[in-house]
Amino acid sequence: MDNVPPDDTIICRCSDVTRAELRAWIAHGLTSMDELKRLTRITMGPCQGRTCRHLVMQELAAVTGQPLEELTPSSFRQPLKGITLGAVADWVAKEKQEKEV
Amino acid sequence: MEQREIVVIGGGPAGLSAALQAAHSGARVTIIEGEKRLGGQLIKQTHMFFGSHKQHAGTRGIDIATLLENELRALPNVEIILGATVLGYYYEDGALTIEDHEAFRLMIPKRLIVASGASEKFLAFPNNDLPGVYGAGAVQTLMNVYGVKPAQRVLMIGAGNIGLIVSYQLLQAGVEVAAVLEAAPQISGYLVHASKILRLGVPILTRHSIKEALGKHTVEGAIIHRLDDRWQPVPHSEQQITCDTICLAVGLSPLCDLLWQAGCAMQYIAELGGYVALRDEGMQTSVPGIYVAGDAAGVEEASAAMVEGSLAGLSAALSLGYNSPADEELTAELRQQLDDLRAGPGGAKIRSGLEKLHPTADNPKEVT
Amino acid sequence: MLPTASLAAVTPHQERLARGAVAIVECFQEIPCNPCATNCPSQAFALVSDINALPVLDWDKCIGCGICVACCPGLAIFIVDGSGEQGVVRLPYEFLPLPEVGATVLGVGRDGAAVCGATVLRVQNSPAQDRTPIIWLQVPPEHIMSVRHFKF
To answer: Cys bridge to B98: B43, B105, B247, B303, which one at CB 3.0-4.6 A?
Structure first.
């Protein structure tokens, strides 16, 4: 966390990640969106990156000097919205039943 | 597992037009919309649309939603699924997973049209997490969909069409608009929209941006500052604004999550709002059978979204063998409409964005 | 901030203004839009194939009916009448409450600043206007090209 201005501006609202934290991780050597995602939880909250992805990419581009166009956004995993395991299990049971009939 | 012919994701202007055109061509169409009614952003657009009569110019967005919905409901080969969210696309078997009223569904379409729209961009400034900092679209939903007066006094950030239109609608709802800030040296939205709020006495401050939001538990005001030619804050240009709400209208990003999952070749194009899928003239992406239309294909006006939707619907139906002698003429006519809509100075940004888009053939499917 | 220099181009000559109601089309930016031209019952707008072209109104063909005022998506068209002792401005007004006929209001300009007192002559709100009421304001004749909104 050395040499990073104490900027507590929120970049990721879902996981309360500040600009200072993000810059510290980038200074620490994380230079891809997927690495940042795994260590800070950016793009993994309820908004699935719809609020923060662009801001994080801007920070990453600004700090590392990589053009925005050349950055790869963090991967987009299914499901895009939470669903209960019960709902999936119900579907599996129903499919199984239909196959047996 | 449910088999379908054409699935359209998103019931906004692009999705509705895509479903209509594909169904008119004779295909069996399923349209999936997350909200409880069709229309997408149209249902909160109380202003009249630009364009020509072909895109319902002069008609209010909300009424265009009803027109398109009624036309769609009259067709026997259309299935409408409301209140359902597509959770993912699995390229291995072309399956869509869906949450439909808390139940899980799995659907395999022969053709997929992604018209998922866009999300609002956010801005980084101190205290941006205070209650009272909203996207302009969210405020528009509160007012025009739910009938809630969202604020007493608003500071609007962004003088593009959304910032200008939402400011006007806030004024119509009896909300004060303290000012509209625009970081660029000129108003980026249409001047006629700007004139509507200027004559109501709302200042539009170009080369201005928000420095920080003020307030303890909720927004009580904001500090704004002037920007120089290099977009840097001018020292000592700070001004304090009193407001209870800060609205961000700083652009939209295409919602492409499903296209990424499908392995479509994507390209970052700032003029189109962010990453967009490469596509051919019929709006087919680099993954055969997957089409894109509307804001998901690049952020633009709803009139263009409708035409893109029709094009996608037409080409998806054609690829399934639903053809008619009039198709060629219709395709040419739709492309001409898009060219016309983009021909003016307001279309310069879109034109330059589309010029940068690589042809699909140069970017073979790559799944990571 | 707005290209009001272009106002001269959309202002009819004195003789036409004195003859009676005429539309003032304050549309100064090429945008893809043409309902004014396609809805004009007098074919007073030049019909051009480029929908981005600025509207061109033939003031001699314009009868000042006001149909374009309510159908302009940009609310950028006004009708002015300089034929009487008092001038009249008709403007689109999408706010509630609507003013009462006979009410005294404050006429404001394009920048929202006060111009002069005005009297409401008529409130036009037919179904054909599709929820864009048109308010007729009586103003001193020298202000027909200045008053574009009002407060009360």
So the answer is: B105
> Rg of the Cα trace of chain B?
21
Q: Is residue B343 part of a domain?
A: yes
Interchain pair B122, A54: CB under 8 A: yes
Which of B248, B264, B299 is at the close of a domain? B248
* Residue B313 belongs to a domain: yes
Closest Cβ–Cβ partner in C27, C31, C112 for B346: C31
Closest-CA residue of B relative to A71 is B268
Which of B248, B283, B318 is where one domain is finished? B248
CATH topology of domain A10-100: Arc Repressor Mutant, subunit A (1.10.10)
Residues B168, B154: contact at Cβ < 8 Å?
Answer: no
Give the pTM.
Answer: 0.95
**Can you give the CATH number for the domain in which B285 is found?**
3.50.50.60
The pair of three-digit structure tokens given for residue B169, joined into one six-digit string: 């609608």
ipTM of the complex: 0.96
**DSSP letters along B144-185, please?**
HTT-----SEEEEE--SHHHHHHHHHHHHTT-EEEEEEESSS
pLDDT in tens, chain B (368 residues): 899 999 999 999 999 999 999 999 999 999 999 999 999 999 999 999 999 888 899 999 999 999 999 999 999 999 999 999 999 999 999 999 999 999 999 999 999 999 999 999 999 999 999 999 999 999 999 999 999 999 999 999 999 999 999 999 999 999 999 999 999 999 999 999 999 999 999 999 999 999 999 999 999 999 999 999 999 999 999 999 999 999 999 999 999 999 999 999 999 999 999 999 999 999 999 999 999 999 999 999 999 999 999 999 999 999 999 999 999 999 999 999 999 999 998 899 999 999 999 987 654 444 43
Query: How close, in Å, is residue A69 to chain B by CA atoms?
Result: 5
B88, B121, B128 member nearest A54 (Cβ): B121
Q: Helix (H, G, I), strand (E, B), or coil: what is residue B267?
A: strand
Cα separation, B110 vs B288, in Å, equals 10
Is B229 near chain A, with CB under 8 Å?
A: no
C26 touching chain B per CB within 8 A = yes
How many domains does chain B divide into? 2
C141 SS3 class:
helix
Local structure of residue B281 (DSSP, 8 states): T
| Candidates C2, C6, C7, C31, partner chain B, best to mutate (most B CBs within 10 A) | C31
Alpha helices in chain B (DSSP H): 13-24, 61-73, 136-144, 161-172, 191-198, 257-261, 302-319, 327-342, 348-356
Nearest CA in chain B to A89: B104
Tell me whether residues C32 and B53 touch, CB distance under 8 A: no
Burial tier of B71 (Cβ tally within 10 Å: 0-12, 13-18, 19+): middle
Q: Are residues B97 and B46 in the same domain?
A: yes
Q: What is the pLDDT of residues B263-311, one digit of tens each?
A: 999 999 999 999 999 999 999 999 999 999 999 999 999 999 999 999 9
Q: Is residue B368 part of a domain?
A: no
Provide the domain limits for residue B148. 122-248
Element (H, E) at A20: helix A19-27
Calculate how close chain B gets to A56, using CA atoms only, in Å.
Answer: 10
Residue C42, domain extent: 4-151
